Amino acid sequence: MENFDEWFHDILENADITDSRYPIKGMAVWRPYGFQIRKHSMNIIKRLLDKDHDEVLFPMLVPESELAKEGIHVKGFEDEVYWVTKGGQRELNEQLALRPTSETAIYPMYSLWIRTHIDLPIKMYQIVNTFRYETKHTRPLIRVREITTFKEAHTAHATKEESDEQIQDFIEMYKEFFDDLGIPYLISKRPEWDKFPGSDYTMAFDTIMPNGKTLQIGTIHNLGQTFAKTFDITFEDKDGEHKYAYQTCAGVSDRVIASLIGIHGDDKGLRLPPKVSPNQVTIIPILFKKGKEEVLAKCDEIKEKLEAECLRVNIDDRDIRPGKKFNDWELKGTPVKLELGPRDLENNITIAMRRDTEEKVEIALDDNLADNIIELLDKSSENLSSQAWDFQAEHVKFAETLDEIPEIIESGNVAKFYWCGEEEVGHEIEEKTGYDVLGIQEEISEGKCIASGKDAKYVALIAKTY
Ligand code: PR8
To answer: pLDDT tens across 332-345, in order?
Structure first.
């Protein structure tokens, strides 16, 4: 993959993921194949959220008066908001924002719903589209102006401790989610200047794309009592006192699909983890005039058997050369392809090909068929994940001096360094190197800051970011 950005652009089109020819910049169409990948990955996170969150759906429009209430928050988003100003020919009395995120839509309602400590904690989520008039270079799935699959969770708690625990719960949930997709991550606490507008602190998941740039794939924010004070979210506590709630929110977006495609893909195309692949098994019949009906009948039988084990299976019976079919499904990343011709039928076998390793194995068409295929799929998931984690491990390098940072990053890596934690020093590091401090990975009590020479407090990460 020489030029990742070009590869990524081409694969979206060639594998029928999205179509960026829609005539609004930053807004693309999900095509059927991409839509299915989106659906399967969304179902994984839905299952995780459903364990202890209630799903809700709020309106897409937010009155200006609500959006403007939380000063720091609105300042963070003011240049990114799309406004609805007219209804038909009439100017609206109050302009309405297309939600860039939904704090200001949800929290006025939380204020009505939360009365006493019995109502807490409250944990809700929605999967919606949000709109951000991004001014940085837009890229399909990575930086879009309509985020089509914004999974946002919003919680409120009686105590600060509970809200901190919720942050840990979200971290565990996102770990499980990304583990399921085989996407490696670096978790860090964002520096003060890069936290979510209005939050106390932000924890972020970043992943390293093949060109070494990091992509923020999920964020978790502790909102403290800032929004509760703005939107008057109070509750009567056990002691009879009225208190402000503590809040958190967390979100992942279409970027999940971008990382899935980018991290697992290779020169031949997608390599999809079985959990999210539209087809987990693609059967390719090798047809000759003689024996055609028998081969097709056997393909149907195999499909039925595998579907009975809840696998997603398709038969490519298009009237084209088998070689072209193999290429097409390689491009689309089906984890396992099964080849079946008249001779295989005679021998009662099929040739299975793993997309991740390109290994071929003969599998008997007997009662163990489904088990054998499931084993291949499991191995393929594990392998994609371990390859991706190995890549990450090889691409995080420790920088001993400030001068080493550009060299490390320009050769496709993320740099780790010791930092005293002071904000001005952080800015100085960013200015001198030209890269972004991702955040703090861990606290330490030894070593010296790479820039100030003072005692280091943290191991921090710096990278070229999307
Ligand atoms: C929140 N409120 O909004 P966040 N294109 C694609 N993905 C994006 C884009 C974009 N233009 N902008 C952000 N993301 C909080 C949490 C409710 C939920 C993705 O947080 O602004 C990024 O992966 O940090 C980001 O981590 C996630 O959406 C949440 O957005």
So the answer is: 999 999 999 999 99
